[in-house]
């Protein structure tokens, strides 16, 4: 009888301990690569940069970017801005002042090394419709301030070697 009571006590104790180990909150960690719906290749005179586009995070921006890319808009435009934390291109004038406007799509998707963002002026609600940038360092201060619409999946070595005046030969969209 004592053995049965001890056995029952041990089973109950183990059950209680094991149930305490489970996480009932089921916190979900979403990897940024889970957000990638479309892929693109930014062909430059230094090599190819493969990017994943966040269609669910910034649908209007991704649609605008892919539409311009398919039409050949970016062909032979230059990277007009290269700083220690960012590389920027897509300006038809080549000086950072060209392009139209599109609504900014803010999200809590963090800007990190390789993030693809949309340039904008002083109005947080309005972004440039053609100029994009790639972060070469952690840029978390841009989160919820700029549209984050993708990330480099291959070719950061190319991004890090870009210089002002390097060309975008084409952008290919792979759906």
UniProtKB/TrEMBL annotation:
Where do the PPIase cyclophilin-type domain residues begin and end? Answer: 36-163
Q: Does the keyword Cell inner membrane apply?
A: no
Q: Give the signal peptide as a residue range, or say none if absent.
A: 1-27
Keywords, in A-Z order: Isomerase, Rotamase, Signal
Q: What class of enzyme is it?
A: isomerase
Tell me which EC number(s) this protein carries.
5.2.1.8
> A GO molecular function for this record?
peptidyl-prolyl cis-trans isomerase activity
- Superkingdom of origin: Bacteria
One of its Pfam families is: Pro_isomerase
Please give the catalytic activity noted in the UniProt record: [protein]-peptidylproline (omega=180) = [protein]-peptidylproline (omega=0)
**Family, similarity comment:** Belongs to the cyclophilin-type PPIase family.
Role noted for this protein: PPIases accelerate the folding of proteins. It catalyzes the cis-trans isomerization of proline imidic peptide bonds in oligopeptides.
Entry-linked PANTHER family:
PEPTIDYL-PROLYL CIS-TRANS ISOMERASE-RELATED, PEPTIDYLPROLYL ISOMERASE DOMAIN AND WD REPEAT-CONTAINING PROTEIN 1
Official protein name in the record:
Peptidyl-prolyl cis-trans isomerase
Taxon lineage: Bacteria, candidate division WS2
